[in-house]
Amino acid sequence: MAAASNFAAPMKRLAADFETATGHRAAFSLGATGKFYAQIRNGAPFEVLLAADDETPARLEREGLAVAGSRFVYATGRLVLWSAKPGWVDDRGEVLRGGRFEHLAVASPKLAPYGAAAEQVLTRLGLRSTLQSKLVWGENIAQTYQFVHSGAAELGFVALSQVGEEGRIRSGSGWIVPAQLHRPIRQEAAALTRGRDNPAVEALLRFLRSDVARGVIRSHGYDLE
Predict the structure, then answer these.
(1) 44: exposed, middle or buried (C-beta count within 10 Å: 0-12, 13-18, 19+)?
(2) What are the residue ranges spanned by the domains of the chain?
(3) What class, spelled out in words, does domain 78-181 have in CATH?
(4) What residues contact residue 79 under an 8 Å CB cut-off, 6+ apart?
(5) Which CATH number among 3.90.1140.10, 3.40.50.2300, 3.30.830.10, 3.40.190.10 corresponds to the domain 2-76+184-219?
(6) Is the C or the N end of the chain the one with fewer CB within 10 Å?
(7) DSSP tally for the chain: helices H, then strands E
(8) What is the model's pTM?
(9) What's the CA dihedral at 36, 185, 66, 6 to 10 degrees?
(10) ∠ CA(9), CA(16), CA(52), 5° rounding?
């Protein structure tokens, strides 16, 4: 299976719980949704996609590469402006206007839905052009987090699942971006046509809808429909 990199932490837990519950083993790769789309188009042997958006699975379904009717939202992501330094980011994101930083890490909007959401936030705040020279682009949200965690960028837009627990920032400092500042990050799962006849695929998609799985997903900072 291919899973969006923002979902790394819950995916590891869910894969173990899934194997315990069903006996099936879920092997997964993590990466940018846009890259996975290109790989699936070019024949990559994935059977399930856990995307960071709802547009990519829909596109794959239209193109005959995802099983019709198998799509559903497994999580709604939350965006965070985060710094590894305590006290650096205030709880309203005003640090963006102060300009006391050299680098702001953002995932590629073309490949990563969280990057697209971050770009929408900067546009809504009227800061997109002002901060252009400070932007450092990550290929995906995992690389973006690494830029900030390592100190290569003083702050950046990451997923709450990477830096939070039970809806709170667990280290450093951050601003949980109000959802109205960007389009909802509705993350869809879909069975791909390569997995159409695999009973493990059906079992996995059922498991992701279970109360056990939903509890794990919620605990990692996601909203649920």
Answers:
(1) middle
(2) 2-76+184-219, 78-181
(3) alpha beta
(4) 114, 117, 118, 121, 157, 158, 159, 160, 176, 177, 182, 185
(5) 3.40.190.10
(6) C
(7) 9, 12
(8) 0.89
(9) 40
(10) 40
